[in-house]
Amino acid sequence: MYCRAPAAPDRPLTREHVIPQARGGRRRDARIIVPACADCNQRRGCQEVVLFLLARPGRILAFLEYLSTLDQPTARQIDIRVFAEVYAAVWLLAESSAGDQPWRTQLDRLCAGRRLHRRRYAARRIVTAAAVRLERTRDRTCPEAPSCLLPATLQGSGGLNGATITRGMAALIGMLALVWEAPAERVLEELERERRRSHRAEDGDHMQSVGEADDDKVVSLDGWKQRRGRRRRLRVDQRGGRSSRRGAA
Asked: What pairs with residue 35 in β-bridges?
């Protein structure tokens, strides 16, 4: 799936967990399992799928090409976290390619420390909120037929990854339109609305110094607020690490 290599007797496909068990996924959860060759499965390991996709941006298109081959009942069974991970990858690729510095340098800065995890959870929140909003409006109005969004209608960034970003976003929105049974233009509108709402939360809740502004921009996207101090962690044993008298005797 990641490398577009076809299956062969000497190269069978394996079960790839988009959210591995070490990251909170379940072993037999079919909603997060996709086919992948053994080399890609072993090369990724327990790495975040966002980082694995961004290591070679062509993997994003390969991932979406596989999802586009699924019929609607099967696509609706996919965990929404899978779509959020792909959305986060396209989002990070677009922001890293927009600056004057090399996109790899900006990508390392955006993924440093906890920024990647905050961006991933922000993407989950955006995709989930858009899905809930479309579901509510669909119940109140007549359902509309899903449609595809042409890459030419999106405002893509130029540069080395401009075509990948535009095609990836168009394919992702088309898949979400199929899953949510809504027009692609409406899906794009809801995603952009939720993303702007995250940025507004940044301006209203996080008024920090200039030196911390860059980090707060990523922090606020997930609604994460900085805590004053750290909570004390309680030990499992109540003896505080001291040996028991019974054992010492």
From this structure: 15
